[in-house]
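Issue 218. Parser rejects a valid record. Input:
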Amino acid sequence: MTFLAIKNIGKHYGPVHALDNIDLTVAAGSRTAVVGPSGSGKTTLLRIIAGFETPDVGQVALEGQVLADGPAVVPAHRRGIGIVSQDGALFPHLSVAENIGFGMERGQADRAEQINALIDMVELDRGMLDRRPHQLSGGQQQRVALARALGRKPRLMLLDEPFSALDTGLRENMRKAVARVLQNAGITTILVTHDQAEALSFADQVAVLREGKLVQAGTPQTLYLNPRDRETATFLGDAILLPAELGDGFADCVLGRIPTDANGRRGRAEIMLRPEQLRFSMIDGTASDTQCAGNVIDVEFGGAVCTVTLALANATGAAPLTIKSSSVGLPEIGSTVHVSVLGKAHVFDVVG
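Output the parser choked on:
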């Protein structure tokens, strides 16, 4: 069921085309992440949905209610949309309880009970209700900001890079906690982020913007494994891009013969593999046509996930390959290993 429908949205700032013909639908109860490099238009899109910006053309509809039709818009305060920004935007002179209850009627009988329920929902101790924002950690402040937004009973929640100011470990914990809270509350959510890993792990749907255009939208798995073009592939993670010759469901390249998702296409093309699809094994004299030899030129220890860099033995001039590996059984620099590929290679448009 379509909950939010964005149709043909366009926005200019003088000569700058911030958004160009954006079409996107969001299902009820889902989580959508909007990603893209700086200047791609993702924050402008979020602000148009929230009602802080007016589109030049196009329509935004929420549960069938038209919120924007070109410059004719419903004001932001009448949209029933909650928003949590990067810094939380808490009022420094108010207590946690006063911040959470800011949007509630002061005279309502169950106001204190609602505030207690909200702080419980975001998994904070009620003992923090009398504190001021400066007495909280960054993660606690973001939870209070989320509780305040939830207190207005929004139909839609917008998250504008809410975890970017947090340390790496805390960011991951907060992302999981916020996802859990919103899922339990059944609130449809849109997250804007520059962190690709964050988008892939948080969302049911990922939308990639580039230069004001919607390049691709789909499930995280689809975009990561089947990106539309090389720019999207490299934006969403490390990618190995290789020239290849297609035929009979396989691609012949410097790594040997690899199965592909080419669907009967033939000819020269560029294929993509993710580094975790490559595996190495010590030379034992039993290499097949799906394996090739590589010389280990670098090993980067990273704890649970390490990076092994190889120079292919029979591919003069080819760029080194990186393989993601566990820290168990790492090869030594200077050793020779067999390289094999797991799964299928993804094929971009045929060249020539």
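Fixed in the parser; the record now loads. The chain has two domains: 2-234, 238-350.
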